[in-house]
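Students often ask why inverse folding is considered easier than folding. One informal answer: many sequences map to the same fold, so there is more than one right answer. In these notes we will look at a single instance of the problem. The structure comes first.
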């Protein structure tokens, strides 16, 4: 089997026999002696995927990242605690779901068996009224996954089930991209669930956990994006909702090895280098200006977050055409979120889960205990007898006072895990960020596609329209590979084989109920 075939098989590796294969665009295996040059601007997951695919095929790649570390929103950086311990701080917990075929394929470049990831046994959920849910015992094969969750969950009472309006939920039975945006992008996630009359507690635990994964209030989020998540995890994929986490901090487990891989393939990795502007040249390429120098490239990948993309395009007056630039200018950023990591002087109770999703606890959205799976945190906990606990507050109200929200988050931990009430805080870090893309009602058509009016300029990132059923980190990885494929196709070079969850509802009967054409 060829190297490309092995990579495709690795990316496919999962339990879902209906996962969808997207064959690699055909062409030569590598570029010729006259190597084209590409600037990949942004060192997050999308940029790393694009840079990897291009460098593997012999393209001369320069990867630019303004931060001193790679990984973007899944990156990490060194910090020192008050007790002198050197630790790795990050922007918080990330779940690597089994449906993330292309992200996992990227990670397999340096970890073929994905041994740097470890699975968590459940995805438990807790509501402030005491209701508990989880996905460990829920069947993974649709439609039994959704039916099993409803049957096993105390959030669904017979009375509430009878009050639901099934006809309003029919779009969930056959989610297709981009068709689901035509059907639901004009409706908010909140209003869609209202129309279905979805039970309140189940709404918090089964649906709003998805909308808040986008760092958005359900009143702001497009119902199409929420429906897509429902398809990816419940009715479209047989991989289930259990997930993996890295055994070590993100840099050590994921991005430092990948940076070494890129360098071995001839790529130049320039962290701590901010791109100021991109200027098309008469020869068909682009000049990339940074805070250090200016270089010319045959092609450019813009793999930036929303604010970064808007900033670079605004400073690059000749980039793209007027309608494209106007759409980029209209992109919006999701509300601020808060990640609080605590180093406590005592452990959490032995039965506490490694990760807990929450609902109804003011702004607290989840609690994780990294010393249960991450080696660095585990070493600190073993040495001190304490614990490392992380709290997330997504979509914090704009008017909120940051010091008040930080205290409120810790107070909610003491409610959820009472044993933390007597724990002294050895150290604490609060990370406020406001750089996730917002997917607002009616905003789908403004989002950029991978291809732009300039064939030598492509865009990648979790904000990009891919035309595929992917989201979050998997959308970032997939769009990065698609961006690379678009450039490789221009040079007659074979692209990357990709996989996604099925592109439509799995059941012909359910598709018929939803009023869709056969898939």
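Output (designed amino acids):
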């Amino acid at each position: 089997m060829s190297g490309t075939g092995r990579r495709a098989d690795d990316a496919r590796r999962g339990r879902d026999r209906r996962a969808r294969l997207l064959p690699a665009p055909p062409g030569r295996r590598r570029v010729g002696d006259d190597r084209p040059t590409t600037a990949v601007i942004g060192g997050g997951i999308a940029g790393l995927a694009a840079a990897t695919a291009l460098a593997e095929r012999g393209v001369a790649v320069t990867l630019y990242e303004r931060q001193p570390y790679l990984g973007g929103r899944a990156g990490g950086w060194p910090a020192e605690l008050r007790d002198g311990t050197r630790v790795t701080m990050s922007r918080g917990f990330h779940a690597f779901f089994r449906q993330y075929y292309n992200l996992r394929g990227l990670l397999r470049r340096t970890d073929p068996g994905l041994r740097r990831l470890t699975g968590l046994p459940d995805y438990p959920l807790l509501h402030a009224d005491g209701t508990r849910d989880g996905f460990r015992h829920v069947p993974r094969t649709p439609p039994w996954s959704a039916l099993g969750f409803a049957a096993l969950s105390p959030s669904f009472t017979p009375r509430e089930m009878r009050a639901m309006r099934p006809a309003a939920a029919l779009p969930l039975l056959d989610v297709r991209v981009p068709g689901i945006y035509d059907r639901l992008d004009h409706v908010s996630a909140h209003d869609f669930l209202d129309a279905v009359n979805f039970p309140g507690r189940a709404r918090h635990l089964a649906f709003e956990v998805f909308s808040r994964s986008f760092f958005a209030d359900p009143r702001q989020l497009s119902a199409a994006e929420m429906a897509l998540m429902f398809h990816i995890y419940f009715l479209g994929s047989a991989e289930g909702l259990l997930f993996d986490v890295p055994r070590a901090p993100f840099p050590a487990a994921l991005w430092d090895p990948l940076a070494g891989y890129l360098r071995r393939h001839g790529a130049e990795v320039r962290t701590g280098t901010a791109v100021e502007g991109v200027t098309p040249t008469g020869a068909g390429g682009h000049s990339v200006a940074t805070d250090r120098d200016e270089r010319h490239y045959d092609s450019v990948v813009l793999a930036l977050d929303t604010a970064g993309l808007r900033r670079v395009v605004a400073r690059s007056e000749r980039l793209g055409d007027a309608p494209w630039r106007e759409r980029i200018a209209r992109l919006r950023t999701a509300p601020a979120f808060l990640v609080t990591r605590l180093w406590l002087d005592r452990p959490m109770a032995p039965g506490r889960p490694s990760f807990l999703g929450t609902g109804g606890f003011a702004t607290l959205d989840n609690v994780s205990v990294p010393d249960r799976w991450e080696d660095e945190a585990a070493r600190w906990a073993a040495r001190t007898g304490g614990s490392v606990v992380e709290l997330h507050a997504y979509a914090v109200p704009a008017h909120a006072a940051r010091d008040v929200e930080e205290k409120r988050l810790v107070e909610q931990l003491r409610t959820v895990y009472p044993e933390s009430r007597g724990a002294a805080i050895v150290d604490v870090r609060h990370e406020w960020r406001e750089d996730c893309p917002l997917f607002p009602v009616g905003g789908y058509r403004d989002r950029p596609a991978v291809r732009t009016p300039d064939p030598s300029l492509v865009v990648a990132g979790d904000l990009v329209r891919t035309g595929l059923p992917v989201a979050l980190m998997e959308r970032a990885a997939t769009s990065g590979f698609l961006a690379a494929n678009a450039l490789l196709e221009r040079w007659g070079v074979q692209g990357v084989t990709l996989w996604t969850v099925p592109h439509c509802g799995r059941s012909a009967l359910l598709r018929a109920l939803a009023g869709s054409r056969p898939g």
